[in-house]
Amino acid sequence: MTKQRIREWVQEYSANGVYVSFSGGKDxxxxxxxxxxxYPSIPAVFCDTGLEYPxxxxxxxxxxxxxxxxxxLNFKKVIEEYxxxxxxxxxxxxxxxxxxxxxxxxxDKRETxxxxxxxxxESEYAKKYPTxxxxxxxxxxxxxxxxxxxxxxxxxxQIAKEYEKETGRKVILGTMAQESRLRxxxxxxxxxxxxxxxxxKSKPMSFWTEQDVLKYIKHNxxxxxxxYGDIVYVDNxxxxxxxxxxxxxVSLKTTGAERTGCMFCLFGCSIKGWDxxxxxxESHPKQYDFIMRPSDQGGLNYKAxxxxxxxxxxxxxxx
Length: 319
Ligand code: SF4
Fold this sequence. Notes:
Helix content: 40-55%
Radius of gyration: 21 Å
Number of helices: 13
Bound molecules: iron/sulfur cluster
Distance between the termini: 42 Å
Largest sheet: 6 strands, mixed
């Protein structure tokens, strides 16, 4: 099915009219493998945000025909100008919109219609969606630092759109519906190939699961970035096996990082068990020191940001 969707995309735009968005992560590595087996000349594009693990950058360098594109602003500038990406895209957007509205209307943040819709548990919206979880994040409106959802747009989306405008190429992405509710909704609405959307996109792995990706890598013996470690089978008791005769009752996992993505992202930080920073402290101490250091010492001030969130949001973000 995935190959069929890729074929349809290439038939519409030609092999020179499409590209693979390649992050160096395992999903897009699988996608690139499938695409290049079918059409070896299709280019890949890597967005060099400066937030990727060094192992990922090194891995991407080992591929041919990959174009590196760079955003106009670096991450430090993005958090200074717009704000930190904390909790989730949805929550960060609400905080950003509330503060923007308050600035425009010169009123208290809690007097804006946006605050009422997003954070007031007594609002009409809250009554309509009683389990909606943003209400517990109202305290973020008092944060002594900026919060925003704009980082992904500026660091990744804008630059990809500019590349597409310059080259006329249409993107093939390795994203999956399983990853988020938004991706699932988009897949239900558009299917794998969104020919008619404002920015046409092909997502031919939409219906894959994480296990499908790991299985594909294992069975095809594909090289993935070293940060993932090895892929092993694990049974219900947690025993690990390099190989099995029968894969019934076992699942696959990576022995290193489960996911890669941006090193400094704080989306997901309130989820129980989130330990990205604590792991970075061990694995990448130089980068860890840089982000934790106060801004006036050239760092990104993460220690102060997390201490404030832990204290005021009653969280337990590890670092
Ligand atoms: S994943 Fe996080 S750090 Fe990376 S670009 Fe998006 S918001 Fe920024």
